[in-house]
Design brief:
mainly alpha, two-stranded antiparallel ribbon, 4 helices, 2 strands, 38% helix, 3% strand, rod-shaped
């Protein structure tokens, strides 16, 4: 996703971004003539100073700073909830379904073992596990 695919570095916490604005003008003749005495040899005339020297002023157009933070918003609770939801969707089962199956098999085994109807308490007429 970046220009350097082999780099696996995290994004920097702060990244300075400065917008440039260019403005230029010629040196003033009076300013150039006043600076001749302070310059090294080779700048003999005002014209030499005006053609070979410049003054740079750096001004920032904006003082905004961008800050990038990485915050974990997907924790273990969200992960387990998503896994349980997907399993429930694909398997068609939930905790209540599993409990109902356990209850059904418990009643079926009790009915077969004790030979009684758990709802009425009366013995059944024959020893079958399920009625069709």
């Amino acid at each position: 996703t970046s220009m350097y695919p082999e780099c696996h570095c995290p994004p920097p916490c702060q990244e300075p971004h400065c917008t440039a604005q260019l403005s230029s003008s010629a040196l003033n003749k009076f300013y150039a003539s006043s600076k001749i005495s302070h310059l090294p040899k080779g700048y003999n005339t005002t014209q030499d100073v005006m053609e070979n020297l410049l003054i740079i002023d750096i001004l920032f157009t904006s003082m905004q700073v961008s800050e990038i933070r990485e915050i974990v918003t997907y924790g273990w609770g969200n992960f387990l909830g998503d896994v349980g939801g997907v399993l429930g969707l694909f398997l068609g089962a939930s905790a209540f379904t599993i409990i109902e199956f356990c209850q059904f098999f418990t009643f079926a085994i009790a009915k077969w073992c004790f030979n009684t109807n758990l709802a009425t308490g009366k013995p059944p007429s024959n020893r079958t596990l399920f009625r069709v």
